[in-house]
């Protein structure tokens, strides 16, 4: 079970409406682990999952989910992108090809990945601001000024610790 379903993922991400979501759904959990859980904490995350599974989502948590979706939608695509473009098979890593189009080259992939990352970091910043504004409504969300999972106050905000500090990347903070 995830915080977002296919309908909302398509609505809050650059995924086309007719896209085969089977290629992306495995990356929702990864995006949640990297981009959402460090912001809302395990307790709040678990409460959301429990309420989604029981179909008893409180009004506050419905609002929280709607605030999470723009970040989670783009974060999911960002995490899935390399694996959508390239596939692993018995012969190794290969470029995926469709009947009508060629896959993008590595330069185009890097551009797209950088653009998605900028979108994710911007949406993360907006979500953080929203969380600060409505923190009183969500007592399970731990106060933090850093999105990393290490618990330290890193200077490079907006970039999860799991990725380290990119050399050429500037945050939008």
TL;DR of this structure?
The protein is 51% helix and 5% strand.
Walk me through the structure:
With 173 residues, this protein is mainly alpha-helical. The chain has one domain. Strands 1-2 form a two-stranded antiparallel ribbon. The longest helix has 28 residues.
List the helices and strands and how they pair.
Layout lengths: L5 H6 L16 H27 L4 H27 E4 L2 E4 L10 H28 L40
Antiparallel strand pairs: 1-2
Helix pairs in contact: 2-3, 3-4
Main traits of this protein?
mainly alpha; 4 helices; elongated
Number of helical elements:
4
Order of strands across the widest beta sheet?
1-2
Largest sheet: 2 strands, antiparallel
Flag low-confidence runs. 147-173
Number of beta-strand segments: 2
Label the overall shape: elongated
Question: In angstroms, what separates the terminal alpha carbons?
Answer: 32 Å
Query: H/E series, N to C?
Result: HHHEEH
Provide the residue-averaged pLDDT.
Answer: 80
The radius of gyration over CA amounts to: 17 Å
Counted up, domains total 1
Secondary-structure-derived class = mainly alpha
User: Strand portion, in percent?
Assistant: under 5%
Share of helix, binned: 40-55%
